[in-house]
Amino acid sequence: MSLDKQLKAFQRRFAKYTDPDILEAMKRADDALQASGIIDRALKAGDVAPDFALKDASGAAVTLSSLLFHGPVVLSYHRGDWCPYCVLELSALAEVHEEIQHLGARLVAISPQAAPVHRFAGAGSHPAFTILIDVGAKVAARFGVAFSLADELRPIYQAMGHALPEKNAAQDWLLPIPATYVIGKDGRIALSYLNVDYSKRLEPADVLVALKSLQQSESPVRTEA
Fold first, then answer.
1. I need a labelling partner for 82 at 20 to 30 A (CA). Which of 26, 72, 136, 218 fits?
2. Coil, helix or strand at residue 57
3. pLDDT value at residue 122
4. What are residue 170's DSSP bridge partners?
5. Residues 76 and 127: beta-carbon distance below 8 Å
6. pLDDT, position 1
7. For residue 92, how many other CB atoms are within 10 A of its CB?
8. Which domain holds residue 169?
């Protein structure tokens, strides 16, 4: 089953059992985020990705430049393991991880969650790919994909057990929008996927297509939103 079909199936179940007022509040927040122009401001295909240094779950520092030294990098911004859409996305990426490696690339997930549990199917508690902790969503902000959760949604998230200041060990309610980047070894973004709707994500197959193009020394410039 494609990632899109999995996401839509979960969305239908969520909508069936969720208060319509909550669904309306979430829709208003998505509409406001779209109107904010965040997609226009975010880094896109053709831009150069900024270098950064973040710690992985073991506390080791990882830089983008060190990853790019070995080849292209696939960056997937991940809200947290409390987000079922993120779990489904990372599970789908885990399924193609070996193919990503065979294409000479590294897969990296970035999350503002302070201590990710990494609960997604097929990866166990110790995923084969790197998950980096972006405290305060500072790197997400440099890519232009960070936003502050709408005031209206904060008590809703808290009631669901998703109080972001506690999850992220930060005094804010910052999250990244769904964003996936394929970055060439030269640091230039070859593919970007940006969306304000957290229920929509890039298909892993599109990541593989972009990496194959890079492997063939092509420089595709694609933006999907």
1. 72
2. coil
3. 45
4. none
5. no
6. 85
7. 25
8. 3-224
Separation between Cα atoms, residue 76 and residue 86, nearest integer Å: 10
Check residue 57 and give its pLDDT: 80
Number of domains in the chain: 1
Instruction: Report the distance separating Cα 208 and Cα 54, nearest Å.
Output: 25
Tokens representing 221?
């410039």
Those residues of the chain that have pLDDT short of 50 are 120-123, 219-220
CATH number of the structural domain spanning residue 105? 3.40.30.10
Q: Which of 101, 111, 193 is nearest to 146 (CA)?
A: 111
* pLDDT per residue as tens digits for the range 115-160: 755 554 444 555 678 899 999 999 999 999 999 999 999 999 999 9
Phi-psi region of 191 (alpha: psi -120 to 50; beta: other; left: phi over 0): beta
DSSP state at residue 59: S
- First CA to last CA distance, the chain: 22
Burial of 206 (0-12, 13-18, 19+ CB in 10 A): middle
Query: What whole-number distance in Å separates Cα of residue 198 and Cα of residue 179?
Result: 10
Residue 90: strand, helix, or coil? helix
Q: Write out the two tokens for 122.
A: 């097929």
- pLDDT of res. 120: 46
Q: How far apart are CA 24 and CA 26, in angstroms?
A: 5
| 8 Å CB contact between 156 and 127 | no
pLDDT of residue 222: 58
**CA pair distance 209, 162, nearest whole angstrom:** 35
CA distance 109 to 99: 16
> pTM of the predicted model, to two decimals?
0.91
